[in-house]
């Protein structure tokens, strides 16, 4: 579905993404794991075309528009939602922007999307501050789904939530992926979350991919010392 070829992004003398090449197959969940500052979020922004690469290319193998078909769910649902806009308007906005439905049909579609993330249609009349953290993240997921994407980037989508809520959101994301036949790039620093969600894992350090393998192999036989360090730190928690 997506091919990244020799991708590099520099900010002055700092190299955030260093000559990366990889692909994402349609329908898979690819995990991207690494410590803060490893370049994960910069890579996500490059894929979304929010920033331009210094060199290299990203090839989206679809006849569609990557700006509509690739969406992101952010780490902090509080900061990703406009506090002055009601939930229904926030979810409906991408539908308006991409002209996916007539205006008179948007309310029904918003209610459908809220149901998909296990929220009631009454949530559409509330403001973000009236919701819990878990509810706001469900709204963030619904908003990402509003443009009918094929590919979701999930950038630390549960790290700001309580552990019990994390499990509910991860189960919901798995359910939605199967229901809508989505492809995921799941970004996290926690390998236990990656292990639950992903088919394949890339380990990123200092802008480079130091190891890539299927999830079972990464956990049972990590090759790189950095990967072993991440696994050891996960198991100690």
TrEMBL record:
Residues 2-231 form the ABC transporter domain. It comes from the Bacteria. GO terms for molecular function: ATP binding; ATP hydrolysis activity. InterPro entries: AAA+_ATPase (IPR003593), ABC_transp_ATP-bind (IPR050319), ABC_transporter-like_ATP-bd (IPR003439), ABC_transporter-like_CS (IPR017871), P-loop_NTPase (IPR027417). The keyword Glycoprotein does not apply. Keywords: ATP-binding, Nucleotide-binding, Transport. One of its GO terms (biological process) is transmembrane transport. The keyword NADP does not apply. Belongs to the ABC transporter superfamily. This is ABC transporter domain-containing protein.
